[in-house]
Amino acid sequence: MTRVTLTYADYAALPDDGLRYELHEGELSVTPAPGVRHQRVIGNLHVILREHVQARRLGEVLLAPTDCIMSDITVVQPDLVYVAAAHGDRISERAIEGAPTLAIEVVSPSSERIDRRRKLALYAKHEVAYYWIVDPVARAIEAHVLGEGTFRLAARLAGDAAATLPPFDDLPLDPAAVWA
Asked: Global pTM?
């Protein structure tokens, strides 16, 4: 059987039906809308990071759904993205055209395998410098840093103590604020 490789044009023609569509190397990925806990955590992180980034003029923080067009056959919608000021030209009216500085994914039962495996590989391939995997059930955030084409776990937020995660080494994240 011949595999059909979808492109951005195919992706742009998909219906607006409430599902989350992405292209992973030309393959369509479809996930249901996230749950309430997922949305609360993303909302909390968005407020914390946006305030920090805006106050220091470090770039821009955007919520999903925001397309990140990594290539003509790879389009993703991380739950939250940060684009450093130095790469602000990657933000166009339609999408982020290229890799964001940081991609954040909050795992759900329907997305955990994709977020921890497939997206980890995609983000490394397309040179996303930082990738956070947020697990609301475990109340943990894993911060990965790209080096030599692969991610390494650089820091972890877990438990009750505040911690800093790259690329925001001057922002102690308070777990109570993240998981509220």
From this structure: 0.95
